[in-house]
Structure formats: structure tokens, C-alpha cells
Amino acid sequence: MVKYKMGAIIKEVPKGSEKWYKLAGWKKVESKKKEEKNDKTDSEKTTTT
Questions:
Q1: What is the pLDDT of residues 7-42, one digit of tens each?
Q2: In whole angstroms, what is the distance from residue 38 CA to residue 28 CA?
Q3: Is the pLDDT of residue 3 over 70?
Q4: Hey, how many other C-beta atoms are within 10 angstroms of the C-beta on 26?
Q5: CB burial class (10 A; 0-12, 13-18, 19+) of residue 35?
Q6: Distance (Å, rounded) from C-alpha 25 to C-alpha 28?
Q7: Per DSSP, what are the bridge partners of residue 1?
Q8: Greatest alpha-carbon span in the chain
Q9: Would you say residue 46 has pLDDT above 50?
Q10: Secondary structure, 3-state, 2-48
Q11: Nearest to residue 21, comparing CAs of 31, 34, 33, 9?
Q12: Is 28:3 a contact under the CB 8 Å cutoff?
């Protein structure tokens, strides 16, 4: 399931009907979990104590 947003409405959409929501003007919502995985500032190697 992928999340799409139109105004204040957020809806989970199956991957098969994704193209219809794009055609209707809905925007895809990016999940924040992907951003957290790419964040390397939490590692012990970057600490300078």
C-alpha cells in the first residue's frame, strides 16, 4: 500500500490503482522511515569526544 494525499485527505492506495490517483491529481506521500535510514549522523564513528 502506498499513501496518497489530496488536500487534507490521506489515503492508502493499492499499487495497482496508483496510476489513477496520479491522473486525478493526488500527490504521493513519502514515508519518513526512508529518510531515517539514510541519516548517518547517529553513528558512533562521527562522535568527536
A1: 999 999 999 999 999 999 999 998 776 545 555 666
A2: 20
A3: yes
A4: 19
A5: exposed
A6: 10
A7: none
A8: 53
A9: yes
A10: EEEEECCEEEEECHHHHHHHHHCCCEECCCHHHHHHHCCCCCHHHCC
A11: 9
A12: yes
27 vs 30: CA distance, rounded Å: 9
Take residue 41 and report the three cell numbers written for it. Answer: 549522523
The amino acid sitting at 22 is K
User: φ and ψ at 16, to 5 degrees?
Assistant: -70, -30
pLDDT for the residue 35: 47
d(C-alpha 35, C-alpha 39), whole Å? 7
**C-alpha cell recorded at residue 2:** 502506498
Instruction: Find cell 562522535 and name the residue.
Output: 47
